[in-house]
Specification:
The protein has 572 residues and is mainly alpha-helical. The chain contains 25 helices and 9 strands. The chain has 2 domains: 359 residues, no CATH class; 140 residues, 2-Layer Sandwich (Transcription Regulator spoIIAA), CATH 3.30.750. The N and C termini lie far apart (71 Å).
């Protein structure tokens, strides 16, 4: 077992400059984001800073990605807020302890999955479901920032539609000064993201410096807001962050004695799954760009440890953030040393900047959240999915509407259940084709799609789906219908090239079919069985009943054998 990560064992001095620059630029983005995501989760802003120090250090030592930036993320933050809404019932101390429990439990789930090598569990959250969830979560997050952006007092609801219904009558109390300041902040952030670099390059600034200026835009806006708020006593006009404890808290497990933590188990599981899927997706995107390899099981262990460390460090659940990781990657990060440098800067900020941040208007952090999550909204993906596959499109749309109507957790569960249900519905009625020989070749294709040769005595049928409990009855029904239509058929050949698995229900169906055909005077043959399927069938009653003469390597071999047998019978 290695004691040091691979990147540290083979670290090159030439990478130090790139890692230092990337770590610094990422820290510039992370400090205001960390404060904003903590507020989004309904927690004190300093919690975001605490979650941005120890967790990245742990991931740097354990993760398999060289450039993934771990810390508070928007989606996890809104899931935390949803989980804590009823759990804490307005009690800030209980909410903070609950957030620590969520980090601990989600980390525990991830570690358990990692030890059991269950990295494949991430595939149960399909891309359409994840895309619909991300879009709905982003819309929900934007909705939760309306009070801070308008000055209207509103109760944060778990579901977006309920929140909008609740706050709409109160918009008459909108403070125009707050709206104006928020609009200006959002505009400047959007300019910094999409236009500033091009403008700076147009006046002769080098591309690296233009990019650096773009990355620093949020920090510049925060600094400007602090100066203005301090000069005019901003607390008289807008809500401000207020006093933030200086430094980092000591590591502690005192939250373990919180009563009722068991009620957070379900939420922690969902936070763990979504955080892992999001992190793994980002890590894979970055790894492909540099032809590196990501170990899903190692990621489970690393993210599990980072979340548990967040709990004892006074933080909140963490994951690999898309925007932050992309900034880290684009800034030239070569290894996880960049993350260590980022964490160091954040720690210094926790000691040196907390007093300075007190007059920061919350609307500035709300604007940062809004601009950050807009990139998660992707309606084009919904249209593309709907056009390609209506079932997947329905799962994506159902997830999106479910989250908006019922809340983060119920909506996500609805989407996952819908995706699995639609998959079962699709595979429960599989495509089965009667096939024939394409003239002049050994290829066999669907008789309804190609001009092919068939033989009255042979019924060649290709099954294009795994045979399992949900579709075995439908397959049997379709096969019996085809047999009834082929009055002259003496032999049925099942071509199993599209079958990767046959479960016990499927095996029983095939055994019953073989027995029934034998009683009816027909013989059953199988062709093109995949190796792993053949290994499982070895020693079963099905193969014993069929015998080697009824098992064929290819469809052509089956046809040659059966036509030869027919010719022999005719000669005799």
């Amino acid at each position: 077992m290695r004691l040091l990560p691979a990147w540290l064992q083979h670290y090159r001095r030439a990478d130090l400059r790139d890692d230092a620059l990337a770590g610094t630029i990422t820290a510039i983005l992370l400090v205001p984001q960390a404060l904003a995501y903590a507020l989004l989760a309904g927690l004190p802003p300093e919690v975001g800073l605490y979650a941005s120090v120890l967790p990245p250090l742990i991931y740097a030592l354990m993760g398999s990605s060289r450039t993934l930036a771990v810390g508070p993320v928007a989606v996890a933050a809104v899931m935390v807020a949803s989980a804590l809404q009823q759990f804490a019932d307005g009690d800030s101390a209980r909410a903070l302890a609950g957030a620590l429990w969520l980090a601990l439990l989600s980390g525990g789930f991830l570690l358990l999955f990692g030890f059991m090598r269950l990295g494949w569990l991430s595939y149960f959250v399909s891309h359409p479901v994840l895309s619909g969830f991300s879009t709905a979560a982003a819309i929900t997050i934007i909705g939760t920032q309306i009070p801070a952006l308008t000055g209207v007092n509103g109760d944060r609801q778990a579901a977006f539609f309920s929140f909008i219904i609740d706050i709409t009558p109160r918009l008459n109390d909108t403070q125009l000064s707050v709206v104006a300041a928020a609009a200006a902040t959002i505009t400047l952030l959007l300019i910094g993201r999409f236009r500033l670099a091009g403008w700076l390059r147009a006046i002769g600034l080098s591309a690296p410096l233009a990019t650096l200026a773009t990355r620093m835009m949020p920090l510049v806006i925060v600094a400007s807001a602090l100066l203005i708020s301090s000069h005019v006593d901003g607390a008289r006009y807008v809500a401000v962050v207020g006093d933030i404890p200086q430094g980092l808290p000591p590591l502690s497990i005192s939250f373990l004695w919180l009563d009722g933590w068991q009620g957070l188990i379900g939420s922690a599981l969902l936070i763990a799954i979504i955080g892992y899927v999001e992190s793994l997706s980002v890590a894979r995107i970055l790894a492909i760009r540099r032809r590196e390899r990501i170990n899903p099981d190692q990621e489970l262990l690393a993210l599990g440890a980072t979340n548990m460390s967040a709990a004892i460090a006074g933080g909140m659940p963490v994951a690999g953030g898309f925007s932050r990781s992309m900034v880290n990657f684009d800034a030239g990060a070569r290894t996880q040393l960049a993350a260590i440098i980022t964490a160091t800067w954040v720690a210094l900020a926790a000691f040196a900047l907390t007093d300075i941040l007190a007059p920061l208007p919350k609307l500035v952090l709300a604007a940062i959240v809004v601009v950050a999550v807009t990139q998660l909204i992707d309606f084009k993906s919904l249209w593309r999915t709907w056009r390609y596959d209506r079932r997947d499109g329905l799962a994506q749309l159902g997830t999106l509407l479910g989250v908006l109507a019922f809340g983060i957790e119920p909506g996500l569960l609805l989407g996952m259940a819908l995706a699995i249900g639609l998959y079962l519905q699709r595979t429960s009625d599989p495509h089965i084709a009667v096939i024939g020989q394409v003239s002049g070749s050994e290829h066999y294709r669907n008789i309804h799609r190609h001009s092919v040769t068939t033989w009255p005595a042979l019924l060649l049928v290709r099954i294009d789906e795994n045979i399992y409990f949900a579709n075995a009855p439908a397959i049997e029904r379709q096969l019996m219908d085809l047999i009834a239509q082929a009055a002259e058929a003496e032999h049925m050949v099942l071509v199993l090239s599209g079958v990767g698995n046959i479960d016990a229900s499927g095996l029983e169906m095939l055994e019953s079919l073989a027995q029934g055909l034998g009683d009816a005077g027909m013989t059953l043959h199988v062709a093109e069985i995949k190796g792993p399927v053949m290994d499982r069938l070895a020693g079963t009653a099905l193969l014993n009943t069929l015998g080697n003469s009824h098992i064929h390597l290819s469809t052509q071999a089956a046809v040659d054998h059966l036509l030869g047998e027919s010719q022999k019978s005719a000669t005799n």
